[in-house]
Design goal:
single chain, binds phosphoribosyl ATP, Helix Hairpins, mainly alpha, 108 residues
């Protein structure tokens, strides 16, 4: 099992355990979706700041934080990480520029 899938399994177990005294994930779950979504937004901002003015080490840490909180958000919503990976697989090999051009054509 890869790192992100193992992390998703742990996160889902923590959400199910609902023991917020012992688990940060369970604590986030108890605080609810708006708090988790806000946390993801904060981590995104911190990642941008690290990219623009931080070290590679800081950016690595912030990138890990954002991936972690994204998987918490997906788990909270019941969206499997596998679905996101499948969507990326589906997009594989299609240039973003080609996709954008075909969208512009469809929109007239
Ligand atoms: N990968 C992570 C991980 N990355 C970051 N974090 C936590 O995410 C939080 C990041 O928030 P901040 O840096 O903003 O810190 P903060 O100000 O204390 O956060 P808030 O008070 O605002 O919520 C910190 O408490 C980090 O410890 C993580 N907590 C847990 N995991 C993984 O999740 C698993 C389950 O964790 P628990 O639910 O705590 O058992 C762990 O075994 C790890 O594998």
């Amino acid at each position: 099992m890869d790192t992100l899938t193992r992390l998703e399994t742990t996160i889902r177990q923590r959400i199910a355990s609902a023991d917020s005294g012992k688990s940060y994930v369970a604590q986030l779950h108890a605080r609810g979706l708006p708090v988790i979504a806000r946390k993801l937004g904060e981590e995104a901002v911190e990642t941008v700041i690290a990219a623009l003015s931080g070290s590679d080490e800081e950016l690595t840490g912030e990138a890990a934080d954002i991936l972690f909180h994204l998987i918490v958000l997906l788990a909270e919503k019941g969206v499997p990480l596998a679905d996101v990976l499948a969507e990326l697989d589906r997009r594989e090999g299609t240039s973003g520029l080609d996709e954008k051009a075909s969208r512009a054509q469809q929109e007239g």
